[in-house]
Amino acid sequence: SQTIHQWPATLVQPVGSPLSLECTVEGTSNPNLYWYRQAAGRGLQLLFYSVGIGQISSEVPQNLSASRPQDRQFILSSKKLLLSDSGFYLCAWGRGSGYNEQFFGPGTRLTVL
Amino acid sequence: GDSVTQMEGPVTLSEEACLTINCTYTATGYPSLFWYVQYPGEGLQLLLKATKADDKGSNKGFEATYRKETTSFHLEKGSVQVSDSAVYFCALRESAGNKLTFGGGTRVLVKP
User: Fold this and answer.
1) Among the residues of chain B, which ranges form H helices?
2) What DSSP letter does each residue of A49-79 carry, written as one string?
């Protein structure tokens, strides 16, 4: 069976510090990978998605970036965090084009102070 | 573009009451439709899905029917429990796309 991991689970960072969140998937190959952000009490915002190694599509211009160095690894980064980067970050995986759903990780709660 | 509209919450209910969360969508093709549930502090879990018109998805006592004529996918449960307190998201995926389009989420609070 497939599992998706995210770490860290929680993170408190000062404004201006760098960020690296990691997501890994087990039990499947060549998945589509997604990063979402959920601000407090709000809906989901798709940040990035990837259909393969080194292929990143950005949905929202901002000070975040994503990378996919390995088939089942997806990393969300920032060089300098802003207060507005606080939120709940969710990674998800899905299969290729078609009618398939996405499967979500447990999330990372980021607080920028 | 595609969009999903669902009723704003919070929805507050007593235990054993009936729950309905409305969801309507706009899509260019014939999408698949999903309901996800998010318990406090957790990621999203797929609750149910339907891939074509008139399909009914069901799970854990929840049901939703894909209504193409009204472009709707309303979520229903006949008797809610306190453990059903969560945020519920309606979503769609076009057959040719790689992305899900989510509604804004509906918070449900069930009181004992």
Assistant:
1) none
2) EEEETTEEEESS-SSEEEEEEETTEEEEEES
β-strand B106-111 against B11-14: which pairing, if any?
parallel
**Residue A65 token pair:** 């970036």
- Interval B45-84: pLDDT, tens: 999 999 999 999 999 999 999 999 999 999 999 999 999 9
Residues 6+ apart with CB under 8 A from A64: A19, A47, A48, A76, A77, A78, A85
- Please give the Cα distance from A41 to A43 (Å, whole number): 7
Mean pLDDT computed over every residue of chain A: 92
The residue assigned the tokens 């969801």 is: B23
Substitution target from A5, A99, A100 for chain B, most B beta carbons within 10 A: A99
**Interchain proximity B98–A106, CB inside 8 Å:** no
